[in-house]
Design the sequence.
């Protein structure tokens, strides 16, 4: 398999990405020849140690699977989802040895909704963990294993709030009640302690938090980083800076290191904010010890990024060139935060060289 390593200032990307809170969505059109499969990548994330990119895909035969790319060693593996079920909202366990995900049904019990499963990253075996009761409102999403491995934190949507599921007892506990949750979005949840998380949120319900956001010039349509200790209060983390102008899109794709000392996010470039055609230059930034640093200078539109929990690497995708046209893409990229080197991964090439990639 091939791997292309380039410096940041040498990168020119032409891809089409779609970002939604808490996830990455990318359409890929692969037409190297007429017999080639068309593959759609539906989710992208990076392991805690920054060495492995996990992604989900569906091919033109509607067969779905999950791929794992060891970008440092150019090693690719893929599995087909069982019984054509989608493994929804995957996340790495803190030790990076398993992938947690949700799958629909799997139980004959009328009160059961989704099933929590895990993928062993050594054997790629999928195992059931627990059948989940139907929430009183909304639906389960985005499972994150709590440090210690005895409970799983879930996001329940509409309105957005957080619950803990005890893997031993099956007990469900609300840790962030819907009355103090978020109206528009909540995602990117990372544990930064046994009972403390950092996440991105939009339009907090609680009046004093909404007022504090307004004081910091954070609009209801803006995403911001929040810290929450179970049993305590939600607090703003990101010290937002004044917008370049009313068209400044703010920040997105927030991810925290496991110790909570560093945040990564996508924001408007401080070097080339945007041109006269309103083509934004969105880049990756880190926040540490109160200092914000722009870590890329792609002069492109970074649509999504996720930093590994050890803050060693970032996986990202680019929506379009600064001046170039929109185009269907087949690449994603990994930034080594220690060296500043970007590795570009060509999925079309991987499909040609690794037949098992697309079942």
Sequence:
């Amino acid at each position: 398999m091939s791997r292309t390593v380039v410096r940041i200032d040498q990168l020119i990307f032409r891809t089409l990405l779609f970002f939604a809170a808490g996830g990455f969505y990318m359409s890929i059109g692969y037409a190297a020849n007429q017999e080639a499969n068309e593959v759609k990548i539906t989710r992208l994330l990076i392991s805690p140690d920054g060495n492995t990119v996990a992604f989900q895909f569906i091919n033109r035969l509607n067969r779905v699977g999950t791929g794992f790319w060891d970008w440092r060693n150019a090693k690719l593996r893929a599995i087909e989802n069982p019984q054509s079920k989608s493994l929804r909202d995957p996340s790495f366990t803190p030790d990076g040895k398993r992938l947690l995900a949700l799958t629909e049904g799997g139980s004959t019990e009328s009160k059961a909704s989704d099933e929590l499963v895990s993928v062993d990253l050594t054997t790629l075996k999928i195992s059931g963990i627990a059948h989940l009761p139907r929430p009183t409102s909304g639906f389960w999403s985005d499972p994150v294993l709590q440090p210690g491995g005895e409970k799983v934190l879930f996001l329940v949507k509409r309105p957005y709030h957080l619950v803990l599921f005890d893997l031993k007892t099956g007990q469900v506990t609300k840790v962030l009640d819907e009355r103090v949750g978020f109206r528009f979005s909540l995602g990117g949840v990372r544990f930064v302690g046994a009972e403390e998380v950092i996440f991105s949120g939009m339009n907090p319900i609680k009046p004093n938090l909404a007022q504090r956001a307004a004081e910091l010039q954070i609009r209801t349509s803006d995403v911001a980083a929040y810290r929450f200790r179970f049993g305590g209060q939600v607090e703003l983390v990101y010290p937002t800076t004044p917008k370049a102008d009313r068209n400044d899109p703010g920040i997105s794709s927030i991810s925290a290191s496991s110790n909570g000392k560093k945040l990564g996010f996508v924001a408007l470039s401080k070097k080339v904010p945007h041109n006269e055609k309103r083509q934004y230059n969105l880049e990756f930034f880190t926040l540490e010890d109160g200092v914000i640093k722009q870590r890329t200078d792609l002069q492109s539109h970074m649509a999504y990024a996720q930093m590994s929990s050890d803050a060693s690497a970032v996986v990202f995708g680019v929506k379009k060139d600064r001046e170039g046209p929109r185009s269907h893409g087949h690449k994603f990229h990994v930034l080594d935060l220690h060296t500043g080197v970007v590795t570009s991964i060509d999925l079309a090439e991987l499909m040609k060289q690794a037949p098992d990639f697309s079942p």
Remarks:
- The longest helix spans residues 207-215.
